[in-house]
Every structure is written in structure tokens, then in C-alpha cells.
Predict the structure.
Amino acid sequence: MRLSRALALTHEVASATHSLDELGALLDPELVSTALETAGVATLRKRRLPLEAMIWCVIAMALFRRMSAWDAASRMDIMLPGQRPLVAPSAIVQGRQRLGSAAVREVFSLTQQRWHASANHPTWAGLRLLSVDGVVWRTPDTDDNRKHYGSASNQHGDTGYPQVRMVCQMELTSHMLVSSAFAGYHSNEMKLAGQLIDSTPDHSLTLFDRGFYSLGLLHRWQQTGTQRHWLLLLRKDAHYEVLRKLGRHDAIVSLKTSPQARKQWPDLPDTLQARLLSKTIKGKVRQVLTSMIDPLHFPPDDIVELYSQRWEIELGYREMKQGMLAGHYTLRSKTPEMIEQELWGVLLGYNLLRYQMLEMSRHCPGIYPCEMSFTACTWAILGFLNGVSLRHPGNIPRYLAELQASAMHYVLPHRREDRSYPRVVKPKPSKYPTRNKNASQLN
């Protein structure tokens, strides 16, 4: 009797494991297994929540932000069969601790490599368009988080929440992330950007915010790999010498490096050559600096206007924080290790959505993935994930095909170039009435 029950349970576990394998249409199980082995957390012991399922749990925490981790895991039905239909919430916590953050980071790294390789991104002058910028995430105010990450401060002391400073690199036509680095709030964004150099693809152009003006960083970016170019706005206090004119608003300039920069970047020469271009846009003169010094290969007409594409990464951050996380700006986790796991899960979940949008855009000729509604596509994809049980994986290819066939319904109208969004400070909502006049004016 006991033997028959054991055989039956083994069959159920094997069937459920096969169901997880069938999710290869979304996330290749072999790739997940490779990531777990690389991170050193792979195990042969079968649990109700194996590590492969916990990867999906971390992703679900990002995709279903309004649910608890236990609710998200239960809704996606990622638990293997057992005597009880559900596991205790503490099993989710223990499963996350077994998984750690390195495994989720490895899954993100391996998936982005595969998805970008199959994407066939559009190029400009033979270069893939990328952008690098920083963003800040708020964490729960625990002693561990505050000690590890720190927070902003003023004359009255530290602010309410510890914060994580992150720098990401994004492909601009698809909004898919390439790499990311993050550390405490007081970390230097340029040092974090330096950690992204090795993952930068060859034959690419990276657009930087002017705050990343570091000749050591830009020189290392250009010298590592083949045809890795950069473009950023010229700082107002930058000093340069014109070496030769290429046109009325086009010149090759020499930038002198500082001893401090050469000490930090030993391979940095005394001077660095770059190309300076100027153009008047809406009555304002804009000057950009770039490593694309060959005027024949890189004509000047579109280079200055190309810089406006840098804002795509800002839209990507808004999609993550407001669209995917539903405006819940404070992360869930109480410890730094789980914060890192959660952040890699957010980036992985965002790339998963964006890759599905890329697949949908293939059914819309002439449409880039960034021209599709992230909110509408996310609702459709999450509705698909929410309604598909892992115990019935055979329906996944059919549901994905139907989703991709309806892609034209999610294309956004063309952007209006004349739209303006001036920066304003909005008052915080309050239950008390607002007094419009000063007390001295009431008499």
C-alpha cells in the first residue's frame, strides 16, 4: 500500500516537473537550470517549491505587484502536487532564501543575451542604439536596509526610507534591458556605469545623460570592444580646443584630461579627441559630443537630433515603476539580499514583458516595440499568465499565438513632437483645506 502511494506521488511530481519544462515558450527551463548551477544553488531534492518554481515566484512578485508573494505563487499555480493544495506563506520566504539573488541575476543575464540575439534590432548607421541612465529605488525602512544602502539626508538628518541607486543600459527600439548595476544610495553613478562596459555589445552607440561626463569612462567605453561609440550633451563648463573644422557646426576637438582622472583610469591619455556638433532646435543651441569622428561614415545631419532618443530609457523606468509595479515605489523585502533578488526579479520580469512585446511587434510591419502601448500589452500578457495554470501548459503556445495575432490593437498613435511637459511641483494631498493667502493678507 505504501509502495503504491509512493509511486503515485512520484508520478505526480514527475508530471508537474514536466509542466514546468513546458514553460519554455516563456522562459527556457534549461537556461534556468544553467543559471542555478552557475550560482551554486542547484539541488536534487524535490520540494513543493523547487528552485525552478521560485524563479517564477520572484518574477510574479514583480508582475503581480498588488498581490503578496504567497498570493502570486498560488495564483500562478507553481507548487508541485502534495497532500495539501497550498503551502504555508513561510515556505515562500524559505524558498526565496534558498534561491538567493545570484541565481536570479544569472537568469536575467542569460535571458537578455538570448533575447537580444534573436531580436534583430534596427540600427542607425550600422550601430545598435543604447542608453545608460540612473534610477533610485526605495526600500522598507529596516535596520539592515538602512545600514547597507543608506538614504538621502538634509540638515535635519536622514530621510524616511533607505534607497538603492541603480544604473541600467537599455536597447532603445525595444526597451529591453542589456545590463544593470546597483549599490547604496551614496554610490557614484559613473562608477556603476563602469560596471556595464564589459556587457556592452559591439557595433553600438550608447547615449548618456550629461551627468555621465567622465573622460575616463567614455575613453574606456570606446576602447573596450569594437565600434562601441558614445554620445552625450556637452557640459557648459567643459574646456576643449578645436583641432579642425568639418563643417559650419561640426568640428574635431581635443579634450584635456585631469591628473585625477588619469589616476583613476590608468589607460587614459593626456588628451582625448572627440567630435563636437551644434544645432539650433526650437531656438536653443544644442551641442553634443561623440566618439563618431568619421564624417563619411557618420554624417552630421541626424546626430544632434539622435540624442533625443535618450529619453526612451526614462520612459522605460516609468513603465517599470508606474506601469508594472502599479506605482508601489517601495520594494517589499526587508533584507539587502532579498532586495537584490527582488530588483533582479523586477528587471527580469520587465524584460520578459518587453520580449513578448517584441514578438508581438513582428506581426506589425514597420512598428517598433517601443511604439506599442506598454500598459495595454502588460494587461494582456498578465491576463494570459494569470489564466494559464502550469498544470495545463499545452495551451500556452496557442494563447501566445492568439496574443501575437492581436498585436495591431496595441499600437500607439504617432507621438506629437510639439508636446511640452514643463516641470511643476504638485501639492501633496491633505485632508485639511488649503489656505491660498498669507496670514498677513487676511486682515
